Amino acid sequence: xxxxxxxxxxxxxxxxxxxxxxxxxxxxxxxxxxxxxxxxxxxxxxxxxxxxxxxxxxxxxxxxxxxxxxxxxxxxxxxxxxxxxxxxxxxxxxxxxxxxxxxxxxxxxxxxxxxxxxxxxxxxxxxxxxxxxxxxxxxxxxxxxxxxxxxxxxxxxxxxxxxxxxxxxxxxxxxxxxxxxxxxxxxxxxxxxxxxxxxxxxxxxxxxxxxxxxxxxxxxxxxxxxxxxxxxxxxxxxxxxxxxxxxxxxxxxxxxxxxxxxxxxxxxxxxxxxxxxxxxxxxxxxxxxxxxxxxxxxxxxxxxxxxxxxxxxxxxxxxxxxxxxxxxxxxxxxxxxxxxxxxxxxxxxxxxxxxxxxxxxxxxxxxxxxxxxxxxxxxxxxxxxxxxxxxxxxxxxxxxxxxxxxxxxxxxxxxxxxxxxxxxxxxxxxxxxxxxxxxxxxxxxxxxxxxxxxxxxxxxxxxxxxxxxxxxxxxxxxxxxxxxxxxx
Length: 488
Prior knowledge:
InterPro entries: NADH_UbQ_OxRdtase_su1/FPO, NADH_UbQ_OxRdtase_su1_CS. It is found in: Cell membrane; Membrane. This is NADH-quinone oxidoreductase subunit H. It catalyses: a quinone + NADH + 5 H(+)(in) = a quinol + NAD(+) + 4 H(+)(out). Helices cover about 55% and strands about 10% of the residues. By secondary structure, it is mainly α. The protein has 3 domains: about 400 residues, no CATH class; about 35 residues, no CATH class; about 30 residues, no CATH class. A hairpin with a 2-residue loop joins strand 8 and strand 9. The protein is globular, with a radius of gyration of 26 Å. The N and C termini lie far apart (about 80 Å).
């Protein structure tokens, strides 16, 4: 285990605090997350407004900085509406299930070294464990249950579709996120968050063309492929633009929380932003040196002691939050099939190959006289460039067939790939009778004009009545739906 300074906490320093220190830490983590949520909302609206040459919030508070607080109070005091067909216990618990794990995940994030609080020396971290990073992964996985149950319990078709889409998306990209940090475990030799920060404390000695210098120690530099995969995966795992497909307004009205209002909707909203803060803090911990000061601030002897490291840590978190906002204001939303194809066919295979490369690098550094920095420079950097190039080419090739088909369809032709069937029908093909998918002049699918939205899946159907009407009995009444008669 690496120890850079006496202030660096170890696993033995946790679990020995008095009860009131633990209480202060718990309340402190809660307050920090709530304040960061309020800050992130205003920060996002201000930054996106500047990108789009708008004013942004400017009414509530100085320069509009209290707008998110006003929005939170408005949501808390709005009327709480529950759908008649909702499963009330599950409908009520779903936002809680989504929010609580978001708070729990932050408990293992180190925010600073050991400091003195009212005479008691304690680490600026609620707790830690030999498998601390897995606590974050487990908490983020638990949040999926809240989203799925919220969409199912609403008693409506579109929230159910949004929750299913969200579950598939979060599970897919959580696999890529988990694989991306395996390389960090190999380099740090531990899954404890405090020890991972300690592993990034000292620079790596590198010899290049006879010159000796100290290279960077951040894993974002030593493991660039892992950092890029993690950055992409957490955007998809947190349902943020351009990967906010579970909340695609043009397709699903609002996603899994369409039927939620008032404080329950606010809890879903809170969970999303806390997850953003948590994955940003985890990125700072795993790849950006944690609470340690960046160069040239690290030259100052007192930069990594006392309360100053909290400033460096939250500065890195704000930079990561800006990355989320920058993507939202820049990139368009992907199609769902493109998004899932990129996760399973590009990110996951590249992450697996990169793990093998990192394991080889670690073996070479142990069997030879080369230092970790030299192995990363002479082997890791060229391989990282090749892997990143493979990611770019793989992402382009994954959508090649769809792109070529769209170009041929726009030109009025039909494209076939080897012996596969036609991707799109001939231009001008008409839609299938009665509710089937239709094709426009260019061959692209458009919804039929006579589309009938089916009744809620939670309605209990009765035998057909007179005139072919299907009687669906809900909890608060009876609904009669006329059956579609096929065109003759």
